[in-house]
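ENTRY TYPE: paired fold submission
RECORD: A
CONTENT: sequence, then C-alpha cells
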Amino acid sequence: MYASITVIQVQPGKIDEAMRIRRDSVVPLARQQTGYRGALAFVDRDANRITTAMLWDTEADMEAFATSDLYQEQLRKVGPFLAGPPERQVCEVGLSEVVIQP
C-alpha cells in the first residue's frame, strides 16, 4: 500500500473551507478511483496547516489519480485558500491500523 502525504499551509481562518472541499469534492472523487483505500486529514489550527494522507493499493493507482485532470480541478478549488504551494511526499505504508469508535 502507498500513501500520498500532502501538507498545505492555509490562510488564517480558511481551514474549514479547505477541509470542506477535501471532504465534499476530493474524497468522493477518489472513492471512484481504482486502488483507493481511504484518507485521513490532520488539522493544526494554530499553525493554519492541514496534513492529508490518501492511501492507495499501488503507486501506479496513486499517481494516476494525482495526475488526473479531475484531481487537478479539485486542487484549483482549494487554491484561493492556500498561503503557499502544497508539499507532497509519497511513502510506502509500513503499518496500517485505524480503529475509530463512535
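RECORD: B
CONTENT: sequence, then C-alpha cells
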Amino acid sequence: MIDDTNPRAILEMSRAFQQSRALLTASELDVFTVLHDEWRTSTEVAEAISADPRGTDRLLNALAAIGLLHKNEGRFANSAAARRFLVRGRPDCVGNLQHAVNMWESWSTMTAAVRKGGAIDRPPIDDRGDEWLRPFIAAMHYRGRQQAADLVKRIDLSGVSRVLDIGGGSGAFSMAFVRAGTGISAVVFDLPRVAAIARNYIETEGFTGRITVEEGDYLVDDLPSGFDLALLSAVVHSNGPTENRQLIGKAAAAVDPGGRVVVVDWLMSEDRTQPVAGTFFALNMLVATDGGDTYTEAEVRDWLTGAGLGDLIRTDTPAGPGIISGRRPS
C-alpha cells in the first residue's frame, strides 16, 4: 500500500531504474569479471574495459554504495554476491544480463506501446540478430534450469515416453523430462535460428540422441505427432488469444489419445492484478510483441476444452507460473 501522507515512496519508485541501469552498464562493460577476485583502482578497471577513468570511477562508487562492490583505500573488489553471481564463467553466474539490457531498450518504448497497443518496430524473433537472440535464449536457459526440475516433479509422467517441447528454446525443459524418467525422449520444436542454438545446448549437456530438434514456426507449420505429452512452457504469453486457441488445438492433435497437453505460464486472477509479477510481465509482452499477454486461468481452460481436452488439472509452482494440463480422450 502506498503511503498517502508522504510522497517519498512514489519518488523512490520513480528513480528505481537508476540502480538497475548501473548494474546493467557494469555487466555490459564486464566490470565484475574484470575485478574477479582482485582489488583494483578505478583507473586500472577503466583501462581493462576501455572506458574513461572518471566515468568508471563514478560507476564503481555507485556499485559500492549499493553493495555490489567493496571499496577500500581507493581500490575496489567484488562483494561476495558479485563474485558468485556476476563473474562470467562461475557456476552460479546469473546468466547473460544482456537480455535485461535488451529489455531496457524495449521498455523505453512503453509510452508509445501503450498508445499503439503493441510493440514498436519489433521484427519477428527469427529475424533479430544474434546480439538479441543469443542473450534471450541464454536467459531462458538460465530460468529453465532453475525451474524445470521442480516443474517436472509436479507432472504425472506415468505412461510418458515421448515429449514434444513446443517453442522449447534451449531445450532446458526437455532435459528435465529426460532426466526425470528412464526411457523418456523429447523433441524440441522451434524456429530455425533458435533450433541451431538449441542443438549446441543439447550437445554440450550430453543429451544428443535422447533429445532431437525439429525446425518450424508453431503458428504456421504443422506440429509432429505421436507424443504422450506436449509442453507449452512460457509460450502462450507470446501470442494473442486467437493464436493460442489455434496453437493448443495443434498441440492436442500432436498427442496420442490419452496424452496430455501441459501449459506452463502466468495464470492471472480474473481482475488481472495478481500475481504482481504477472502484471509486469503483461507489460513486457506489450512492449515486446504484437499481441502477447498474460492470461487468466479461465482463458487457458477455455482454450484447452475448446481443443477437446478434458480432465483439466491446475497446479501452482513456487516460482510463480502455474500449470494447467488437459488430457486428450482415449
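NOTES ON RECORD B: The CA atoms of residues 161 and 182 lie 8 Å apart. The two ends are 50 Å apart (CA to CA).
STATUS: closed
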